[in-house]
Design a protein that fits this description.
- This protein is of the alpha/beta class.
- It has three domains: 61 residues, Beta Barrel (OB fold (Dihydrolipoamide Acetyltransferase, E2P)), CATH 2.40.50; 143 residues, P-loop containing nucleotide triphosphate hydrolases (Rossmann fold), CATH 3.40.50.300; 57 residues.
- Helix content is 23%, strand content 22%.
- A six-stranded mixed sheet has the order 10-9-8-11-13-12. Strands 1-2-3-5-4 form a five-stranded mixed β-barrel. The chain has a two-stranded antiparallel ribbon with strand order 6-7.
- Strand 12 and strand 13 form a beta hairpin.
- The radius of gyration is 26 Å and the shape is flat.
- The N and C termini lie far apart (81 Å).
- This is GTPase.
- Keywords: GTP-binding, Nucleotide-binding.
- It comes from Lentzea aerocolonigenes (Lechevalieria aerocolonigenes).
């Protein structure tokens, strides 16, 4: 058509190609009905080590449709692809099941970003030495807070009892009814072993408290197992990562690296109080924003008035609340 004929065109003669944004897109995602269930036992730089129900240990990557969905040790996941566990094979994680519990922490009390350390553990084993290094009650309290808020049962495991008495430390936690296991270097941890059997439990503690010694006794081939997991991460050893180890008697123990800080910025006072049924109902009568610390910080707190028959337990609860508020004796 010549330029002289352009004036003869009208809008019915114009053909407009639809842009990409106008094309209908399906939001349907693959259901992966054939996905096999596995437990994540190690994580390292974009690769996940997973234990299949068949017993095979599989290396997997996160499927694209999961986006940035966090996948941590202890997660129950759905896996497709090569699940044989043979060398140089790679499967895909296509689904992360709902978690029954989470152990979270932040780098410090001002850090807004929480980190999930372990998922689906039923117990948090707080490994504390009675001497060398000396026990830090602030650290224990913070672990208790994280356990109560995350749905884990806390258990206090005291090591090096052949060097110091546990009586004074245990007196601080009598009112909380926290199970206690006392171990010593020259004896097998039989009570702890029985406690861990057929469960998923997480061990946490400072460096030097004897946690590695306990793990090596509980899982005789722990060093070999950790080596298998580290191979997934292109050669880096996993001493700085949580790793789940299968117990010979059944169950799993999640060994976490020695930590220097345990921030609780993600936990509110009400999260802690909810773990204590005898206080939770009374706390509903407190004014909004109450930290439940009592006077002088919270002079209008109703816990003193409504729960007068449990002064020792209330004192223990408020010590945990003070820990969460950063008013404890905890230091790195």
């Amino acid at each position: 058509m010549s330029k002289r004929d352009w004036h003869k065109l009208d809008e019915s003669d114009v053909r407009v190609r639809p842009g990409k944004g106008t094309r209908p897109r399906s939001k349907r995602r693959p259901e992966h009905a054939d996905a096999e269930t596995a437990m994540v036992i190690g994580v390292d730089r974009g690769r996940w080590t997973c234990a299949m129900e068949s017993g095979a240990v599989v290396t997997a990557m996160r499927a694209r449709e999961l986006g940035r969905t966090p996948v941590v040790v202890g997660d129950q996941v759905g896996i497709v692809g090569d699940t044989s566990g043979q060398p140089d094979t790679l499967a895909r994680i296509v689904r992360v099941e709902e978690r029954t519990s989470v152990l979270r922490r932040t780098a410090d009390d001002t850090d807004p970003f929480e980190r999930v350390v372990v998922a689906n553990a039923s117990q948090l084993i707080m490994v504390v030495a009675l001497v060398d290094p000396p026990p830090r009650t602030g650290f224990i309290d913070r672990c208790l807070v994280a356990a109560y808020a995350g749905g884990l049962e806390p258990v206090l495991c005291l090591t090096k009892s052949d060097l110091a008495s546990a009586d004074s430390l245990l007196a601080l936690y009598t009112e909380l009814d926290v199970p206690v296991i006392v171990t010593r270097f020259d004896e097998e941890p039989a009570e702890l072993r029985a406690r861990l059997t057929d469960t998923v439990s997480c061990l946490i503690g400072h460096s030097g408290v004897g946690k590695s010694t306990l793990v090596n006794r509980l899982v005789p081939d722990a060093n070999r197992a950790v080596g298998v997991v580290s191979g997934v991460g292109k050669g880096r050893h996993t001493s700085t990562q949580a790793v789940a180890l299968r117990l010979p008697e059944g169950g799993w123990v999640v060994d976490t690296p020695g930590i220097r800080s345990f921030g609780l910025a993600h936990i509110t006072p009400d999260d802690i109080v909810k773990a204590f049924p005898d206080f939770a109902e009374a706390a509903e009568e407190c004014p909004p924003g109450c930290g439940h610390l009592g006077a002088p910080e919270d002079p209008s707190c109703m816990l003193d008035e409504l729960v007068p028959d449990a002064p020792g337990r209330l004192t223990s609860l408020r010590r945990l609340l003070a820990s969460r508020a950063g008013l404890d004796d905890y230091t790195d």
